[in-house]
Amino acid sequence: MQKPMHQWLTRALLVSALIAGAVPVLAQSGAEGKSPPAGYVAAADPKPGDSNAERAKSQPGNNAPLWRAVRESGNTPGISNLPGAEKGVLIQPLVQYPGVRLNNAGEAWRQVRNQWIIPYGGSLILIALLTLALFYWRRGPLGGHGVDTGRVIERFTPFERATHWTNAIAFVTLAVSGLVMSFGKFLLLPVLGGTLFGALTYALKTAHNFAGPLFAVSLLLMLITFVKDNLPSKQDLTWLMRFGGMFGGQEVASHRFNAGEKVVFWLGVLALGGLVVASGLVLDKLIPGLAYLRPDMQIAQMVHSAAAMVMLAMFAGHIYMGTIGMKGAYQAMRTGYVDEAWAKEHHELWFDDVKAGKIPAKRSQEPAPQAAPQA
After folding, report:
1. In this structure, what is the dihedral angle of CA atoms 233, 236, 126, 188, given to the nearest 10 degrees?
2. DSSP summary character for residue 98
3. Where does the pLDDT of residue 313 fall: very low under 50, low under 70, confident under 90, or very high at 90 and above?
């Protein structure tokens, strides 16, 4: 019984082998017997430099040349019927910004913003606020050691106050809207939800765009108005070395503006303010003659954000000292006048010049407020 079964299997394998060998031979003989139609031209083999149309003939469905052209469009722009610059550039060329690896410009900008400007800028602002809170907790508001005399000195004229308040209101508008646009998706979006957060961000973005030019004009007026009294003097070095006497019992004598205020003026208002305004005008497309290409806007945005973060941290100290950090400072900017006791305590050299007649005690036609001496 086993022998017939073995013979049957052997014969079956032999027949299968004969059939498998005969099929290619028959196919080849059939192909040799059938000639191509007249005018037939065989497709060329694919080549590395093929266009997408050529590759579609040699290898239908292979779109590698198309996507290779998309990837290299930053170096060799594609052809587009759309008007304007960069319309044929879908992926920007490779660049390497400080702090990130070599990448296409769009991804490199995103990495600089998300890995450097947002986390480190936010940390700088938070550190500045915590430092001011700790200082206020330990020292409280500065000044108030002398009794008011009832005799006042005009510290700021109406024009100076109007310039300062215009700049301050524009700055606060820009700061709040900028912080929401930078950190809102981390802090507010989970709380407000997408719809409300989107409406809020859109409104603040619009306010940001309109407050920017106002801030630029008022900043220029600030520079022109206060530059004379912010010129460096030899007393500034003493003030800086002793940090104004804030950690001691007595403030260091200074002129109308002390060295700390001069640092805020030159570094914060002029340098950082100039960078923020210049880059902001580029982002708003208000400077004529620029092409406003993507690389220009990306660099402007990085400069704008980084300078604004440092400016916010610096101006946090200025706002602190002008409100709750020093007694009588807010009153000076609100009314324009300070008591002689306040002037002597905080700006003794300026007070001496006023008393000596070198600087007029009143520089405007506005009537001085009546202040009664404190008991």
Report:
1. -30
2. T
3. very high
